[in-house]
Amino acid sequence: MQEYLRLNDEQIIDKLSDLLHKEKSKKLKVKLKPITQDELEAKLSRSEKNIENGEIYSQSEVENFFKNRFQ
User: Fold this and answer.
1) How far apart are CA 13 and CA 51, in angstroms?
2) pLDDT for 30-60, tens place per residue?
């Protein structure tokens, strides 16, 4: 990292930045794997059952959960 910060060659910096963005993009694509129609329908069905059974959270409960988790 220190060597990267000491670079004065803009072309090398650009190439390293491009490589970093490409690698991040690859990891993101793996995380964002598309789901099948059947998987989507199963998720929707579970969600509808949760709503019918009152298994839901209010907006403020969700906000508080994430606020506390990431502080």
Assistant:
1) 51
2) 677 788 999 999 999 999 999 999 999 999 9
Overall pTM surpassing 0.70 (yes/no): no
Supply the DSSP string of the chain, one letter for each residue: -HHHHH---HHHHHHHHHHHHHHHHHHHHHHTPPPPHHHHHHHHHHHHHHHHTT----HHHHHHHHHHHT-
- And the tokens for 49? 């059952």
Both tokens of 52, joined, read 């019918």
